[in-house]
């Protein structure tokens, strides 16, 4: 008998501890803010168990706790949103790519705020308005939705930018609820859909039509200079089944190019997020990226011919998909880098001409192989000077292919690349001879030299 009582007490203590833990995790001190204590709202949190905390120096207020929405089931349901006079809901969010995603949905009054790729869209009944300001993935942002029921208007505040819309007159019966869904679209006739993927937190609801100044003071995200400075940083959390998959995801971000994505993905040593990673001391470790080739450079007037033999050590390695040819002026490394693709990855005795060079200027040239596992080791670096008379002519941008021409060339190519994102990014600003004259790759050579 005593044993049974003892077990029952243990169960009660465990359940009490679990309940208190959940209450503390999701109470108003952590994720929600209220206008007044007496106006606390009820909420139901579905399939959310993880959170993160912002650090001092990050965008927005420091030390915020943001809940993680998994893009499949995570959502918040508030049974009764304010429906008289004026109301505002505001929150911070840090999105991950997930097709169409819902931020806020008020089904009774047919208001919907969604993200389609990187476009913020406001919908009211059959009307749809797209915002010019793009959503930035993996970057903290702030959204506020204010409703004035008396004057039939709605205002959207997004990182300091505001738009106001006229809507149809909204009236509620006294017993009618006005539910609010966060992170999901919910229609009674359909299954819940368009789940949000990323982080959401510091959700606040007030009974007022908040001014721009109030929103800015609350969010601390209206300073365009500090916000844009952050946007120039590639903030990608590496993940994926393969390196190519990781680069594909990273390349969706405007602030990330092939160089930055390759660095971030190659540096990942978390086997949970980065499925391809195996520690060097693991018995399963096998180097799968291409080995370095040895190149020889022969100078000509305004061009250099490269010669190398393909790597025959392909045991446990995927086939070569392409070669990257990296060229930079020796005296102007920071502003003269260009990357080309050698479009015959099956060659055995490989030959490639680097054209469009200046005579009597020294260049550093190297080659790296690429396969489905990532970018291989760097070849030897050849320092060489094209021979001939030096001219003052410069390559005109008007001679470069347009983006449309480049895409058409890629479509016409017979090469079937697995890492499409890598292909598309590297082919940017491509010449007829296959070269890229771009300053977007400022850091790639530093990365190549150290790997």
Identify the notable features of this structure and list them briefly:
single chain, 451 residues, alpha+beta, Jelly Rolls, Immunoglobulin-like, 2 domains, eight-stranded mixed β-sheet, seven-stranded antiparallel β-sheet, 8 helices, 18% helix
Describe the structure.
The chain is 18% helix and 30% strand. It is an alpha+beta fold. The chain folds into 2 domains: 25-231, Jelly Rolls, CATH 2.60.120.200; 258-449, Immunoglobulin-like (Sandwich), CATH 2.60.40.10. Strands 1, 3, 4, 6, 11, 12, 13 and 15 form an 8-stranded mixed beta sheet that branches. It has a 7-stranded antiparallel beta sheet with strand order 2-5-14-7-8-9-10, with no helix packed on it. Strands 18, 19, 21, 22 and 23 form a 5-stranded antiparallel beta sheet that branches. A hairpin with a 2-residue loop joins strand 12 and strand 13. The model is unreliable at 19-30, 394-400 and 413-451 (pLDDT under 50).
